[in-house]
Specification:
transmembrane; 309 residues; membrane; cell membrane; 0% strand; MetI-like
């Protein structure tokens, strides 16, 4: 009996309970699903490569379209126009020995005066609009934005009569001030957006420490506003350097003509030397290119300042 009971107990101990559930086994991944996943990855890579390649092609095309005119101008300025296309520097010698260098100095003088006027007025105005609350600030700022939309040609006749009555026709510093005044609205708009992006806590902390508002403007905001000021200065320089209308009307005397005016009137109606025209055009464009290349990073920062937080 003992052996029989032990045998029965042994047999019952090895039985598996009916309520126990067998472990779940994940179904094997089908080859078709793996093929679809791999195909999707390959498709994503192909689309990414296609978009990147298309972007590069477009950028290369734009760069080629920008550089091609410069290459053409350099080629024409260094070759003879007798059909042989021989290399010569006669056009550059004629341009450098003519009136263009003096006209370039006058253009530089007018541009520097205009930049000084713009920065000295626009920085103060922008600081006031951005960090000082006063009655009528919003309507005044709206008026400045509206003035940006008004073409300068609409009031140039009035300006000419005023300059004529004051005896300022042919006065280089006065024309530089005129250039600066016409660009103050745009400069104020750019600098105001930049100053608004600077935290107000800087002003509050400086005021608590005993600094006055002029001190805050001079010691804190001007150093921080260098990218925006460079942006305004470069854009103003390019605009004044290439302008023709104001310089033609307000600086009519031969000794006070700017580079653009001299370039416009250098060619006789009966003769047209392509080599000298290309050389003069390159000489006029070189300062703008150099300024833009030197300050391109500051220009990017200044133009995008205040657009986000």
């Amino acid at each position: 009996m003992t052996d029989r009971n032990s045998t029965i107990e042994t047999d019952t101990s090895n039985d598996v309970p009916l309520s126990a559930t067998p472990p779940r086994v994940a179904p094997p991944r089908s080859s078709s699903a793996a093929h679809r996943t791999g195909g999707r990855r390959v498709g994503d890579r192909i689309s990414a490569l296609f978009s990147t390649g298309l972007t590069r092609i477009v950028l290369v095309g734009l760069a080629a379209g920008t550089i091609a005119p410069l290459v053409f101008m350099v080629f024409k300025s260094l070759t003879k126009q007798d059909g042989t296309n021989a290399v010569t520097f006669d056009a550059w010698a004629a341009v450098l020995n003519g009136k263009l260098p003096q006209a370039g100095l006058i253009s530089l003088q007018v541009s520097v005066i205009a930049i000084l006027v713009i920065l000295s007025i626009a920085t103060l105005a922008a600081f006031g609009f951005a960090k000082l609350s006063f009655t009528g600030s919003q309507p005044i700022m709206a008026t400045i934005i509206v003035l940006m939309l008004v073409p300068g040609q609409t009031f140039i006749i009035t300006e000419y009569f005023n300059f004529s009555h004051l005896g300022l026709i042919g006065n280089i510093p006065a024309v530089g001030v005129l250039y600066g005044v016409t660009q103050i609205p745009f400069a104020t708009f750019i600098l105001t957006n930049f100053f608004r992006a600077i935290p107000d806590e800087l002003v509050e902390a400086a005021i608590i420490d005993g600094a006055s508002y002029p001190r805050v403007f001079w010691s804190i905001f001007l150093p921080l506003a260098r990218p925006a000021m460079v942006t305004v200065g470069v854009l103003a320089f390019i605009g004044v350097w290439n302008d023709l209308l104001i310089a033609l009307l307000f600086l009519p005397t031969p000794g006070s003509r700017t580079l653009s005016v001299v370039m416009a009137g250098a060619q006789d109606t009966r003769t047209f030397d392509v080599s000298q025209v290309m050389a003069g055009s390159l000489l006029s464009a070189i300062p703008c290119i150099i300024v833009y290349v030197i300050f391109q990073r500051q220009i990017a920062v200044g133009l995008t300042a205040g657009t986000g937080k």
